[in-house]
Write a structure and sequence with these properties.
268 residues; mainly alpha; 8 helices; 2 strands
């Protein structure tokens, strides 16, 4: 395969390489409040030669048992503490709360439109890169070595710039989703505490971790009503603007620069 053909093929998978990540606001895992994200495994794992294979778990355990450890430290005495109160348990389904949250629904709609536009732009760029690569392959015989290297470099630079640009846009959208979800999480924590306290509950479990419960334990309907009343919408940064740019934290705030004198003193 010629270098020109390799450049043409490199532009074909641009959208696939950049936007395989699942939307942040659309994912709903089993973690508390913030859904978990798990990186995808590589499509073609690279096999590395192993000179000394690692021992099996049983062999590793036997080797560990053969180690001579130093004497164990003496544990301090723990004074007797007060008994905790009797558990009054409530159950909450966070995914159901998010599905019925007006703030979550509005933010997810905005971010879904931005993801769709990003994918459309990436597909257009993919077609443009394919056309440039094919045209370079056609013109290859008519170009001098210097012209050919210049065209190949220009195409490679555009592929790299496109990949960087679309990766940054995708990252900004993900950060915007995390920013919107963090606002919901912050208010949801307070709402759960209020609702639980109003019913005398001091322990709230996730519904996904409970095998059996009755409606009397379920706080989800009340939490949804209070959450939508307290937080009907969230702040989503404008398109292309990262949340840290809009709302810089104390660590990101830059100190004010001191004004320099108009005329520097001249030493004699």
């Amino acid at each position: 395969m010629t270098h020109s053909r390799r450049l043409a093929v490199a532009g074909l998978g641009l959208a696939t390489l950049l936007f395989a990540a699942a939307p942040v606001m659309a994912q709903q895992g089993k973690e508390w409040f913030v859904p978990g994200q798990h990186p995808a495994a590589p499509a073609h794992p690279v096999a590395h030669p192993v000179e000394h294979p690692a021992p099996a778990p049983e062999a590793a355990a036997q080797q560990q048992l053969q180690l001579k450890l130093p004497p164990a430290p003496a544990l301090p005495e723990v004074p007797r503490g007060s008994m905790p109160p009797a558990a009054v348990i409530g159950v909450l389904s966070v995914p159901d709360v998010l599905r019925q949250s007006t703030a979550y629904e509005a933010a997810d709609k905005i971010l879904a439109e931005r993801r769709q536009k990003l994918n459309q732009d990436a597909q257009k760029e993919q077609l443009a890169l394919r056309a440039l690569g094919e045209q370079l392959a056609v013109d290859r015989a008519k170009l001098t070595p210097v012209q050919l290297r210049a065209r190949e470099k220009a195409l490679q630079d555009r592929i790299s710039a496109s990949r960087r640009k679309f990766t940054e846009r995708n990252q900004v959208i993900q950060e915007q989703g995390q920013f919107a979800l963090a606002q919901i999480q912050r208010t949801l924590q307070g709402v759960v505490q209020r609702v639980a306290a109003s019913r005398g509950m001091n322990l709230v479990l996730q519904a996904a971790q409970v095998a059996l419960n009755t409606p009397q334990f379920d706080l989800t309907p009340e939490v949804v009503v209070l959450l939508n009343k307290a937080l009907p919408s969230v702040d989503v940064p404008p398109e292309g603007v990262a949340p840290l740019t809009v709302h810089p934290g104390p660590a990101e705030a830059k100190p004010a620069r001191k004004a320099e004198p108009a005329h520097k003193p001249v030493r004699h």
